[in-house]
Amino acid sequence: MNQPERPYSRLETDDLGKLVGERRSDRTFLSEILQELLYRKRKVAGELRSVIYQRIQELGGYFVWPTTNTDEQAGNGTLEMDRPKVGMLKQMGYQVGLIGVSDENRRDALDAVFSADLSLWKHPKQPVSYIAEWGPPESALRLQKMANSIAAFTKNNKRNWASRSDHSIIQWEADLAYLKERYYVGRFNFGWPSTNPD
Questions:
Q1: For the chain, N or C: smaller number of CB within 10 Å?
Q2: 72 vs 157, more confident
Q3: Contact present, 13 and 42 (Cβ < 8 Å)
């Protein structure tokens, strides 16, 4: 099975920031850097993600759809992702797993997240920068943040064998397919990845 490509994995986050500055109009490149930054937890990585999210929005919202394939060579640790303890999706009623909500309720929550003014749903522990990453309602930036979040949850779960939940993985991947069909097809023009291993 081929591993997901991470062409920028050997570069420090500061070096990625310099490349982003040099190639700030290359939407495909910016999207690839966002994918790499999902593997990094430090504050500087979160700050660079915010910069890229904003720049993608300025460029008209092009982004590469995330994959839920894992990098098995990285071991069984979790994919590093900088997020509050109560994330936006959960705060808006999205929850998977055996104690999660029904398919219909999850889709309703996803619809609400995509179209809501999230500044009205602030959690006291969510920084303004986190809310800004979600972009305006019904934007490519909003869809990208939703898709990247769900893809990261899936990758984390696939890689962490000790707490792996196939039920949750199935629901996350079904919800990504729902987002693609409902909001991506016919609205945005960017490559859509497969969640199946190569």
A1: N
A2: 157
A3: yes
**98 with 155: CB under 8 angstroms?**
no
**Hey, CA dihedral for 40, 44, 47, 52, is it positive or negative?**
negative
What is the C-alpha separation between 147 and 170, in angstroms, rounded? 15
What's this model's pTM, rounded to 2 decimal places? 0.62
Block residue for tokens 């690839």:
32
What single-letter amino acid sits at 175? D
Q: How far apart are CA 120 and CA 150, in angstroms?
A: 22
The conformational region for residue 182 under phi > 0 = left, psi -120 to 50 = alpha, else beta, is alpha
Where are the alpha helices (H) located in the chain, listed in sequence order?
A: 13-22, 27-37, 43-58, 88-91, 103-115, 128-132, 140-159, 166-179
pLDDT, tens only, 35-75: 788 778 788 888 888 888 778 777 775 566 667 666 544 43
Whether residue 30 contacts residue 52, with contact meaning beta carbons closer than 8 Å, is answered with yes
